[in-house]
Amino acid sequence: MTSKAPSPRRNLEPICANADDLYASEAREQIGRVLETWLAANLATPFELLHRPDLIRKLEASSRDLQHAFQKTAVPLALARGASVHEVMRALHAVVDQAIARILRDEKQGLLATLDLGSFSGACASADAGFSYRLAAGVAAHMSAAEGWADKVERLLALVVAAPADGPARALALAVLEPALEDLCGSEHGLAHLIGGDLEPGCFLLGLVRLAHGGAIDAIIAVHPTLQQLVAPLPTPGARLARHFENDDFSHLRLLLSRRALGDLDTKRRLHPGSALGEIAAVRGLAVALTAASGPLLPAEDVAEAILRRSERLVEPSFVNTLLHEQNGLVAGLDALMTVLESVTGDANRRRAVRFIEAAVLTPQFKSDLVSAAGGALGALQVLARTYRRLARAGAGVVGTQDLLDGISQTASAIDLEGGVIADLAGGMTTKPKKLAALQAMANGETAPPGPAARHAADALQKLEASGERVAG
User: Over pLDDT 70: what percentage of the chain?
Assistant: First the structure.
């Protein structure tokens, strides 16, 4: 008789042991997910729901929404813990009922704070830290008078300004306001008023990084023209919150925003859906911004890993095919492939990028197609010179790069010989100084890639310099 394998030990500890646990960041985030539609319809955040008796009563009256929220929370928890859905539902109900009973009782007894900008500082100074949720109820009531999401943001930031200047009272004020700000930033509507609305996803993420790390990002923008084109100025409320971050206020919110930026980067969602080159620019901009902001809140290794995974998507065949399809001709396509190589991180991703360039360059028809696309042999040599320089820099250390560089040099030599480019330059009707300058540029690798074509130009240059041809102006 075979023995039965022991069943996994069930974790029957409730997700929230008591009413206070509902106010934690993780619990509020879960509330925001399971009640997203209801909260949006009522222009509210999880923070407000937990602290406003009127919203609680309204949700209780909508029993279907409430029960559905319990079920969406309980089912995955039950599966993860090896418990029944009924057991988890009963535990959740007990904690929620406790929290509801407490705030409705305190409302009835007049214990919930009533405040405005003028009274907030005094309320914080006299509040009992053990009942900070009563002070938070006053903040939620103050937010409830807002006419829209923008007004909610403004009202909260105004309370930050009205908070006590220092000491335990200020610490209590910021501790009460931070969850309210966190939930506003967890709302797309609220965050739009801090970063800006109608932004491409990549610009939105850059705005998120700028909000959380304004000083570091502003410094890099000043010396990085590409970022200047990608990062929109923060709206006034966002700029105000960024200054509070710079003063070391709301460190947990700043951490959440930083984590969100990394999390959103590490998704399959396009950063610039309308343009493959725009996608590459957004990835490069985010790499620069996140690297500049890396530190305790954004560990450098986490930033590097997120950029690496996003780089993988730039060398997927489907993306590269889209990129090439968007370009106008062979020369633009070749330049776009070089931009991919210059933008990705990680040896494997760089090798994939080099392979795509190989597939374009080392084909029998490439030479004739390039001459046609570049407007002649001389233009083709200039394209190959530019490609060679970019490849030598961006592909340094990548397996296969040197073979590809040699292939480009051989292609240039064939174009030169077939087109008689250097012979035409050396024996043409133009003045000797212009001939010398043109040949020198080729010999230096400026207008022809290093290799046979450049050496051919150097030989022609040497012969021309030694000739008895009179130097004309």
Answer: 92
Structure tokens belonging to residue 24: 């934690």
Cβ neighbours of 226 (radius 10 Å): 12
Sign, CA torsion 173/175/180/184: positive
Distance CA 374, CA 411 (A): 14
Share of the chain above pLDDT 90, in %: 47
143, 183 Cβ separation under 8 angstroms: no
CA trace torsion 277, 278, 283, 287 (10° rounding): 110
**Long-range contacts, 332-339 (Cβ 8 Å, 24+):** 333/360, 334/360, 334/361, 334/383, 334/387, 335/386, 335/387, 336/276, 336/277, 338/387, 338/390, 338/391, 338/394, 339/277, 339/280
**What's the per-residue H, E or C state across 191-249?**
HHHHHCCCCCHHHHHHHHHHHHCHHHHHHHHHCCHHHHHHCCCCCHHHHHHHHHHHCCC
Locate 384 and state its tokens. 């190959």
Query: Angle 315-373-436 (CA atoms, 0-180°, nearest 5)?
Result: 110
Stated as kind and residue range, the H or E segment containing 51 is: helix 46-51
The pLDDT confidence band at residue 10, using thresholds 50, 70 and 90, is very low
The DSSP output letter for 396 is T
- CA 469 centroid distance within chain: 61
- Please give the pLDDT value at position 79: 72
Q: Which of 35-44, 95-104, 284-293, 331-340 is predicted most confidently?
A: 331-340
First to last CA, the chain: 106
Average pLDDT for the chain: 86
| Rounded to 5°, angle at Cα 280 from 274 and 286 | 110
Mean pLDDT of 88-117: 88
**Alpha-carbon span 78 to 56, nearest angstrom:** 26
Q: How is residue 139 written in tokens?
A: 């903040």
Q: Give this prediction's pTM.
A: 0.82
Angle at alpha carbon of residue 276, lines to 304 and 262, rounded to 5°: 25
Structure tokens at 246: 């710079």
Q: What is the pLDDT of residue 231?
A: 82
Per-residue DSSP letter, 300? H
- More confidently predicted of 178 and 69: 178
**Residue whose C-alpha is closest to residue 436's, from 454, 453, 461, 459:** 461
